[in-house]
């Protein structure tokens, strides 16, 4: 994971990385995730920043703490991550995408062709 110079806080970038790990199945429900120190060293940030990201993910019910054992993806972590990303996509990203399509004059049929250029080979 690399921190990007954006308007988004570092802890949110780390949290988004965690969400992507869960969505991709790299971190599975019930699985132990990297410790705060381990991830802080890998990313090159202060452990407090990773802790802030983990607290955020806990608030979203994506991860949980097991006393004395560390952090784990919660039993409903994947479901929570999907719900969060779906909501963000539908409420924020899709309207921007639709506006861009309109500005570029790309209609629905053309978009479908772009997304599926060879429909007869997808059987």
Automatic annotation (TrEMBL):
SUPFAM superfamilies linked: Winged helix' DNA-binding domain
Q: Using the record's annotation, list all stretches that form the HTH gntR-type domain.
A: 8-76
> What GO annotations for molecular function exist for this entry?
DNA binding; DNA-binding transcription factor activity
Tell me the keywords, alphabetical order. DNA-binding, Transcription, Transcription regulation
Q: Which InterPro entries match?
A: Tscrpt_reg_HTH_GntR (IPR000524), WH-like_DNA-bd_sf (IPR036388), WH_DNA-bd_sf (IPR036390)
Pfam short name (any one): GntR
Q: Does the keyword Hydrolase apply?
A: no
Q: Could you tell me what this protein is called? A: GntR family transcriptional regulator
Q: Which organism is it from?
A: Neolewinella aurantiaca
Instruction: Show the taxonomic lineage.
Output: Bacteria, Pseudomonadati, Bacteroidota, Saprospiria, Saprospirales
């Amino acid at each position: 994971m690399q921190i990007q110079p954006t308007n988004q806080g570092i802890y949110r970038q780390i949290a988004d990385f965690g969400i992507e790990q869960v969505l991709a199945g790299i971190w599975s429900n019930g699985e132990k995730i990297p410790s705060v120190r381990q991830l802080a060293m890998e990313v090159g940030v202060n452990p407090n920043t990773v802790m802030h990201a983990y607290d955020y993910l806990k608030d979203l019910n994506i991860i949980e703490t097991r006393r004395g054992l560390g952090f784990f993806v919660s039993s409903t972590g994947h479901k929570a991550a999907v719900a969060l990303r779906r909501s963000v996509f539908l409420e924020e990203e899709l309207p921007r995408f639709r506006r861009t399509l309109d500005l570029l004059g790309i209609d629905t049929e053309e978009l479908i062709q772009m997304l599926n250029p060879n429909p007869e080979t997808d059987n």
